[in-house]
Design goal:
This protein is of the alpha+beta class. It has 13 helices and eleven strands. Strand 1 and strand 2 form a beta hairpin. The structure holds iron/sulfur cluster (SF4) (2 copies).
Length: 282
């Protein structure tokens, strides 16, 4: 609404352009939104929020939004469960897009099981820097979190400054804006409780998965188009039909949920994960 009032066009990234990335180690070419390639300047506007894999979406990771639609989910598939690989890809992508400025909205952030089931958390800060790695490092300090891979890898490859003592902060003093008890998605206790094989067998019992509310579904077919693995289909139900998901092949990318304009798809945690959460073990 503010953008409309100011005459700033808002566009969805739909058209991807393949571009070479000579410096890339993860990829030598990548498909990025045409608008990003054609822009004179890119300004990155991340929101401070948790993410179940990274475990925060800050300035470096936010550039993943320059990957168009279903290609995002393909990267998730390729990254598999290798968080290091995914983090390195994000850092290389950020280096390629090279935003001139990063302005983070941390007024009301998200904590807990983000990005889909997090809780609002009053942070009260807007932070900005041309150096996304330094910005992320400062936010980690404020939230009392360590060990974010995108920050350490970003520092290692020279994308930005990851060493706090070498970052010059202006404005508020860090000690005065620290947040106590910020909650990130916790996955480790589950790993301690169960062995690897058992966890693999029970993985769908832990994770969030998309669930369709057939009362809200208008059978529009948008989610069938959005799913990168083509595992959503219509199934006959009496004289009518219903939308169904092949959960055996679902990668939990939630492209279907993002694209459903009827709000008919929600993320629901598996029974075991839900039970451990209630017991305070996840
Ligand atoms: S996008 Fe939503 S409303 Fe459309 S078919 Fe899928 S679940 Fe139903
Ligand atoms: S069903 Fe939804 S969450 Fe699962 S792979 Fe397809 S788009 Fe992703």
């Amino acid at each position: 609404m503010v953008a409309r009032e100011m005459g700033v066009p808002v566009v969805n990234f739909e058209d991807a352009v393949e571009v070479p990335v000579p410096e890339g180690k993860i990829f030598r070419k990548i498909e990025v939104a045409r608008e990003v390639i054609e822009a004179d300047v890119v300004i990155n506007l991340p929101k401070l929020k948790t993410h179940d894999v990274m475990p925060l979406t800050l300035a470096v990771k936010n550039i993943f939004g320059c990957i168009v639609g279903r290609n995002k989910a393909r990267w998730h598939v390729q990254a598999g469960h290798d968080v290091g690989y995914f983090a390195r890809m994000l850092v290389e992508l950020h280096a390629f897009v090279n935003p001139a400025l990063n302005i983070m909205d941390g007024i009301v952030g998200m904590e807990g099981n983000g990005p889909r089931n997090g809780d609002p958390r009053q942070i009260g800060l807007i932070l900005a820097s041309p150096d996304a790695v330094a910005l992320d490092r400062v936010v980690q300090e404020i939230l009392g979190l360590e060990g974010m891979l995108t920050t350490s890898i970003g520092g290692e490859i020279g994308l930005g400054e990851s060493e706090l003592s070498r970052i010059e902060c202006r404005g508020e003093r860090l000690e005065e804006v620290k947040i106590d008890g910020f909650k990130i998605p916790i996955r480790t206790p589950q790993k301690q409780i169960l062995g690897k094989t058992l966890r693999w067998l029970l993985k769908d019992s832990f994770t969030y998965r998309p669930v369709i509310d057939h009362r809200l579904c208008s059978l529009c077919g948008v989610c069938l188009e959005a799913c990168p693995l083509d595992i959503i289909s219509y199934k006959p139900s009496g004289k009518e039909k219903l939308v169904q998901i092949d959960y055996q092949r679902c990668i939990h990318c939630f492209c279907c949920q993002e694209n459903c304009t009827e709000g008919a798809i929600s993320a629901r945690q598996g029974w075991l994960g839900s039970m451990l959460s209630k017991l305070g073990l996840s």
